[in-house]
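R.M. (postdoc): so does anyone remember the format we settled on? I'll just put the structure tokens first.
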């Protein structure tokens, strides 16, 4: 697979991490619209014995994933500022960010154009069509879709959103952390799936100083892990069962700015562990999520992450735009 940069060709060091005030502002804008998603406590088996884990059920969000939070924030802010064009919004995505943007655009009564890879799962494509988005399918990866969206931007004159590397998008995702702080009173050790890194960057901006954040990636799509090892974001090859949602070939600049502060730990899980985590969620909790979402649970099932005294293990289940038929 060819490698393309997913983020603008600007030095990563020039980006500042999204800060908590931006998350608080996003919450004021979108809290009346989004679901306050529940948490579920469950006992999870590990090699060293059972552990109590709190799951944040964000897959119950509008559009089936956390992505709508960022899009609602970005589009709502543009409306407030009077900068939302008649052409609406444009976004490239592996699927979930496109669904989030389409849901937000429908809510704000504005057009939405999305560019997705040819490999987008049918469940996500069906959702986009039901939401009324204009869909372009291009290439085999998110990077291919992003390149085509860049050519469309000038033609359409639409507000261009980024799936994970736009401050308003990241701040919207961070509102999950504000909810968690109200739902889990103890300090958290929170596991978050990472693709381009918008979710983990947002949660890092919104959590309490006492909370610990782990970014979890497939071994075949570990853009953050490789960036931390190299000391800078680098392009990677993507080859994972979770590539439809965690398929960025380069970590986002805003996620890198957050990770550079030392607040985000890096964990990886192979595809077999991700499949096992997804299967466990269905078998034991009757929860159906995407492979990328299940990645966040895999290190606990494998025993990589264990209980820390005084901390609550928390797994963010961020998306469920998938089908029962592919559980295997």
């Amino acid at each position: 697979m060819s490698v393309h940069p997913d983020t603008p060709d600007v030095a990563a060091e020039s980006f500042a991490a999204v800060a908590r005030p931006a998350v608080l502002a996003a919450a004021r804008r979108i809290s009346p619209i989004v679901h306050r998603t529940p948490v579920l406590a469950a006992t999870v088996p590990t090699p060293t014995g059972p552990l109590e884990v709190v799951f944040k059920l964000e897959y119950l969000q509008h559009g089936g994933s956390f992505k709508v939070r960022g899009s609602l924030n970005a589009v709502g802010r543009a409306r407030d500022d009077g900068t939302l064009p008649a052409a609406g919004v444009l976004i490239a995505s592996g699927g979930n960010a496109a669904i989030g943007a389409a849901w937000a655009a429908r809510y704000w009564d504005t057009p939405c154009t999305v560019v997705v890879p040819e490999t987008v799962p049918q469940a996500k494509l069906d959702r986009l069509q039901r939401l009324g988005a204009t869909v372009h399918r291009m290439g085999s990866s998110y990077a291919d879709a992003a390149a085509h969206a860049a050519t469309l931007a000038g033609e359409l004159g639409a507000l261009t959103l980024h799936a994970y590397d736009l401050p308003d998008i990241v701040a919207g995702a961070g509102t999950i952390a504000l909810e968690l702080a109200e739902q889990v009173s103890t300090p958290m050790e929170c596991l978050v799936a990472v693709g381009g890194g918008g979710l983990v960057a947002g949660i890092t901006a919104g959590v309490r100083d006492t909370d610990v954040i782990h970014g979890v990636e497939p071994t075949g799509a570990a853009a953050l892990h490789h960036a931390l090892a190299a000391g800078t974001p680098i392009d990677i090859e993507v080859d994972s069962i979770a590539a439809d949602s965690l398929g960025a070939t380069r970590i986002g600049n805003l996620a890198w700015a957050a990770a550079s502060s030392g607040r985000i730990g890096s964990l990886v899980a192979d595809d077999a562990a991700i499949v096992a985590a997804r299967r466990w969620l269905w078998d034991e909790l009757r929860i159906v999520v995407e492979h990328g979402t299940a990645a966040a649970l895999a290190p606990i099932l494998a025993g990589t992450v264990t209980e820390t005294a005084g901390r609550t293990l928390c797994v963010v289940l961020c998306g469920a735009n998938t089908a029962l038929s592919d559980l295997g």
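R.M.: ...and that's the designed sequence above, right after the tokens. Also worth knowing: Residues 167-183 form the longest helix (17 residues). The chain has two domains: 12-66+167-326, 67-160.
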